[in-house]
Specification:
Layout (H helix, E strand, L loop, with lengths): L16 H14 L17 E6 L5 H12 L3 E6 L11 H9 L5 E6 L4 H8 L3 E7 L5 H15 L6 E5 L6 H12 L3 E5 L15 E2 L3 H4 L5 E4 L15 H8 L3 H4 L7 E3 L12 H4 L6 H20 L5
Bound molecules: phosphoric acid mono(formamide)ester (CP).
Phosphoric acid mono(formamide)ester (CP) binds next to helix 2.
Length: 309
């Protein structure tokens, strides 16, 4: 019996190798449910989940909603823009009012780093971090790990390059923690203004030139250029970014023949990735989205469905 002894999922740093393997193994067994005619099991009947998002989201929000419904949990979604936060209520007071309705879990996406931790410290309900500021996006990293394991058979020893705005990306941070913990060799690449100083202390290699960075890689992971989180002081414009760092078939030539291309979405076609690459057989971008449902089902199940397997 393997136990998952966590009230909340706030970041990859809290997860041991055994925790990550348990999540991935559980997701693997739950994935089959989504292929059935009737895509629903009663596992979480009577449990309730709140999806609380104060930033736009397509994948994460829909994925949690789908995952909860496939496990028969009750779920409702609340956008901060439609909540009483716009009338001046604090995040913690809003959380306490949601708590008064006895949800088992609150899934929070917030523009402020640390907001999920704040709620976790103040509420009995479990908190899942669905992306907080530039801090972490653990469920994205877990679905990325799942996808790498599914496509490559293992994570340990895989050569992975992450290209883009490493400094402002919660996806990069969560993936660096998760990938290195699971034994992958991680390289980061991008404009020097987007690579944090001393990032090597996290066990990654820095190669600024993307042509060099993709050489002999098993996995190329791209990041969206986050136009809403940084100004043009980091690079002159998206056309310059595309011409130096955008992934084209030509840049990919140095990678392994069976390389996979990943992107958390939403993609900026013609900026960090060409349509030719995004729509090619190397791309597993939509597989990541499908796997996101299975991984989030596993996380819901392990947090509130008994916590053991
Ligand atoms: N990958 C991801 O977090 O996408 P959304 O912003 O659409 O949820």
């Amino acid at each position: 019996m393997r136990n998952f002894n966590h009230k909340d999922l706030l970041g990859m740093g809290q997860l041991s190798v055994q925790d990550i393997e348990l999540i991935l193994d559980t997701a693997e067994s739950l994935k089959e449910i989504s292929t059935r005619d009737i895509k629903k099991v009663p596992t979480l009947r009577g449990k309730s989940v709140v999806n609380f998002f104060n930033e736009p989201s397509t994948r994460t929000r829909a994925s949690f909603e789908t995952a909860a419904k496939r496990l028969s949990a009750d779920i409702f979604s609340l956008a901060v823009s439609g909540s009483s936060i716009v009338k001046g209520e604090t995040l913690v007071d809003t959380g306490r009012n949601l708590q008064a309705m006895d949800p088992d879990l609150i899934v929070l996406r917030h523009s402020s780093s640390g907001a999920p931790l704040l709620l976790a410290r103040n509420l009995r309900a479990g908190i899942i971090n669905a992306g907080d500021g530039i801090n972490e996006h653990p469920t994205q990293a877990l679905l990325d790990l799942f996808t790498i394991r599914e496509k490559k058979g293992k994570i340990d020893g895989m050569n992975v390059v992450i290209i883009g705005d490493i400094a402002h990306s919660r996806v990069a941070r969560s993936n660096i923690i998760g990938l290195t913990r699971m034994g992958a060799n991680v390289t980061v690449s991008g404009p020097a203004t987007m690579i944090p100083l001393f990032i090597e202390d996290f066990g990654v290699q820095v190669v600024y030139d993307p042509v060099e960075a993709v050489k002999e890689k098993d996995v190329i992971m791209l990041l969206r250029i986050q136009l809403e989180r940084q100004s043009k002081i980091l690079f002159p414009g998206s056309r310059e970014y595309a011409s130096f760092f955008g992934l084209t078939r030509k840049i990919m030539q140095g990678a392994k023949n069976d390389v996979i291309v990943m992107h958390p979405g939403p993609i900026n076609r013609g900026v960090e990735i060409t349509s030719e690459v995004a729509d090619s057989s190397y791309s597993v971008i939509l597989d990541q989205v499908s796997n996101g449902v299975a991984v989030r089902m596993a996380i819901l199940y392990l947090l509130i469905g008994g916590g053991q397997r």
